[in-house]
Amino acid sequence: MQEFLNAERRGTVLASLRTDEGTLSRDYLAAARSVLRELVAMPDLVRALPLERKPGGYTRNLLAGDDSVSVWAIVWAAGATTCIHDHHCSCCFGVVSGTVTETWYRAIDAQRAIATEQHDRQAGYVACMLPSGPNIHRMRNLGTEDAISIHIYGFDHEAHESSIETQYVAVEG
After folding, report:
1. Cis amide prior to 43 (ω within 30 degrees)
2. CB 51 within 8 A of CB 123
3. What are the DSSP calls for 3-58, one per residue?
4. Which of 18-23's residues contact partners 24+ apart within 8 Å by CB, and which partners?
5. Which residues contact 26 (CB under 8 A, 6 or more apart)?
6. d(CA 137, CA 128)
7. Rounded (5°) CA angle 125-85-138
8. Are 145 and 98 in contact (CB under 8 A)?
9. Which whole number is the average pLDDT over 120-134?
10. Can you tell me the distance from the alpha carbon of 73 to that of 85, in angstroms, rounded to the nearest whole number?
11. Which residue, 25, 27, 32, 171, has most beta carbons within 10 Å?
């Protein structure tokens, strides 16, 4: 299973995400969707990777990255949750196993947001968005078992610590 992470495979994945218009184009989103569909269709392979885990939280595992794109496997322990956030880059993800609950928000000012909808994203689900948003959301594992998702972000993982641009606090509507 380690062969999935070899240099050739990483290079193939990263090359398939390259477009002439960069990570802010519809062509890029189509390429990212294609890569994600391929990865979520191989749950046994992804689950067999030596992924780090954090009890009660989520752990990002870099699978591949270069100066414009980073591909991460995220392991969501039961109860894990992100902050409410928006991204500074394109954000695409697919659920490999388990269920990740995604709650969407609408900003009411620069620091506060109100929930507008919630969806359970199950294994096989794939979504992509450009940073033309706002695309304010929170991801959680409300289940009792780990969930695994793959995320493709249009940013250099060595230049930025994360894809999060703005964090919000939830308020009741």
Report:
1. no
2. no
3. GGGSHHHHHHHHHHT--TTGGGSHHHHHHHHHHHHHHHT-HHHHHTS-----TTSE
4. 18/68, 18/69, 22/68, 22/154, 23/68, 23/69, 23/89, 23/90, 23/154, 23/155
5. none
6. 13
7. 40
8. yes
9. 90
10. 19
11. 32
Q: From residue 128, give the alpha-carbon distance in Å to each of 18, 89, 99, 149.
A: 16, 11, 17, 13
**Farthest CA pair distance, the chain:** 50
The Cβ of residue 134 has, within 10 Å, a number of other Cβ atoms equal to 16
Please tell me the pTM assigned to this model: 0.90
Residues in the chain: 173
| Torsion over CA: 100, 3, 16, 23 (sign) | positive
Please list, in sequence order, all residues whose beta carbon lies within 8 angstroms of the beta carbon of residue 31, skipping any fewer than 6 positions away: 16, 17, 18, 19
Could you tell me which residues are beta bridge partners of residue 74? 60, 149
Cα 47 to Cα 68: distance, rounded to the nearest angstrom: 26
pLDDT for 80-118, tens place per residue? 999 999 998 889 999 999 999 999 999 999 999 999 999
Dig out the tokens for 105 from the structure. 């928000």
Structure tokens at 108: 């009411």
Instruction: Give, in words, the CATH class of 2-170.
Output: mainly beta
For residues 34 and 16, the answer to whether their CB atoms sit within 8 Å is yes
